[in-house]
Every structure is written in C-alpha cells, then in structure tokens.
Amino acid sequence: MPRPPAAARPGPLAPASPLNDHTQPEPPSPPTRKKRRHPLRWVAAVLVILLALVGARVAWLVHDVNSKLQRVEALSGADDTPGETWLIVGSDSRADGAVVDNTEGARSDSIMLLHKAPGGQASLTSLPRDTFVEIPGYGGNKINAAYSYGGPTLLVATVEQLTGLTVDHYVEVGMGGVSSMVDAVGGINVCLDYDVNDADSGLVWDTSQGECQDVDGEKALAYSRMRKSDPTGDIGRGLRQRAVISAVVSKAVSTSTLTSFSQQDTLVDAGTQALVVDQDASMVDLGQMLLAFRSASNAGLTGAPPIASLDYEPGGIGAAVLLEDTTAPDFFGKLREGTLMTADFNQS
In a structure prediction context, what are the per-residue pLDDT tens digits for the chain, which is 348 residues long? Predict the structure, then answer.
C-alpha cells in the first residue's frame, strides 16, 4: 500500500513563538539620551561675570578719584595746539608738613612739560626752576617767580609763551605728596654714584651700601630735593626728580598693583591727597599722563632743553639758567612736531 505524501504526514508540533501566538512584537526601548555638557558656556558665563566685576571696579575707581581730586584754576584758555600737553609742577610749599623750616610761601620747585605729539611721540622736558624767561606782565625773571607772582595760571601762561604749546592739563604735587606716593607703592629703587651728606635736603647717601638703593618716601623726597651738593645743580636735581616719578609710575602700573584691590585703594588715597589738578582733569587724563610719562622714559626722550649758561647774571635776580638762543627754539619746534631725538636734550 502506497505511503501518503510527506506533507500530509503529521509531524511534531512546532515550538511556540510570538508570531505563532498572534501577538505584536514589543517595540525596542528608545536609547537613553545622555545629557550634553557645554563647558564653553560656563567659561563664557565666568568671563562675563569677571568683566562685569572689572567694569564695576573701574567705574568705582573713576568716580572715587574724580570726586576726591583737589582742583585749582590753572589753564589759560588759549587756543588748543596739536597733541596733548601736561604741565607737572612740584611745589616747595611747607604747608603739608613734609619739610619743617623757616621758608614761607610757595614756589614751583620743579617744572616738567610732558607732551604727546599727534604722531605718538612722548617727551618729558624738565625746565630748571631758575630758567630765565619772560613772564607775561612782569618782564624777565626766573621761571619759578611766575608761580610766586600769579600761581598756576601765570606759570602755565609763561610756559606756553616759552614753548609755543597750549597746556591741556595741570598737575601739582607738594613735597608731602612725593613721600606719600612713594610709600603707597611700597618704596622705590633709585641710584646715585657719589656720597652725599646734604644738610639742606637731609639726604645722606653712602655708596658703600650700593649706588642703587631701595628708599622709602622720606628718603626719596630728600633724594629729589638735593641740589647744593650736586655738581650740576638744578640739572642733576631734575634728573633725580624724573627718576623718582618714573619709578613710582612703573610700580603703579605693574601687574602686582593692577591685580591687587588693596594696593589700588592705597594708591588712590595717596594720589588724591597728594595731587592738585586743573578743573577739567579726570582720572582718564591722569591715566593717559602716566602712559605718556612711561613712553617718554622708555624712549629716553627726557631731559632739559639746550642750555647756554648755568650762571647767567641778568641783574637783580641772582644767578639764572640761560637757554641757548639759537638751539632752544628749534628744540621746542621739534617737541611740538614729535621729532625729538635724545641728542636734542641738554648734554652738559
């Protein structure tokens, strides 16, 4: 008898499966999404906060300085000349108690003309206090007599007549201010290559301790005032005064000062108590002055104009400093144009 076809033969039951059970397959679980991190967003947020804090700090400093600065009528109102010009004056007034003696009144103990020409060149010219000049309304005399006769305004007008520049800002510092500013930056390092024991200024300098020494405010003041024991007189004193200011400026704009709020506060307090400025000067103007001062110092464009004699006797005023008739006008012309070279300054 023939066998039935294989397809008709019963076989073992197939194992159960989801498809055989007439059920739909479960959809796969969605993959777990990892949280994305945005480190750059955090960096940006931190930078925004830091910038906001710096901006607030700067705004506070500007307001604090502008509100505390002592002011005086000083500018002549003359037509502007190209560039920016600051007249920096050291007063020998004893009113602040830094020096105690029988000297009365006040004179301009040091006079510095800081100019930034339109082309960017910055120069710092020391005008010896005994420089013989024509003082408007008073005739020929020593330049510091202008301060005695008519205060800052007459001194500014006298300097403008001598140099052909209009003074944009006036800055005056007393002897006590020099001392406090030096102490505010933690002292400075200055140099002198000969021994001194000067009774008038109080400077005692012993080169056995080094030609360059760290000094505090009191000694820095004596160092910048000393004249009679200097063989070059006012010329040497002007050099030391520029050295003191340059050292203070360098420390004032150093990284350690710019990153320390406490040092900034100390410097602001000392500066606003020490400085007297014109009515229009602001903290921004003082900041630009510091940068111009540093630029002139770094470039070596500092010193006195050409001098014909340190012992000029015009009569009635004692010995004066006489500028060169021929080269001094050319010097001030180059100063205005921003074409000065180190060789243009007095070489004596």
Answer: 555 555 445 555 555 454 455 555 566 666 555 555 555 666 666 566 555 555 555 565 566 666 777 889 999 999 999 999 999 998 765 444 444 445 444 556 789 999 999 999 999 999 999 999 999 999 999 999 999 899 999 999 999 999 999 999 999 987 778 888 899 889 999 999 999 999 988 999 999 999 999 999 999 999 988 988 998 888 888 889 888 988 888 888 788 877 777 877 787 777 777 788 999 888 888 888 888 998 999 999 999 999 999 999 999 999 999 999 989 999 999 999 999 999 999 866
| CATH number where 226 lies | 3.40.630.190
- Is residue 140 assigned to a domain? yes
- Beta strands, E only, the chain: 70-72, 84-91, 108-116, 122-126, 132-135, 139-142, 169-173, 188-191, 196-197, 204-205, 212-215, 275-278, 302-303, 307-312, 320-323
Do the domain assignments include residue 245? yes
Total domains in the chain come to 1
With respect to residue 37, please indicate whether it lies within any of the assigned structural domains: no
pTM metric for this prediction? 0.75
Looking at the domain assignment, is residue 28 inside a domain? no
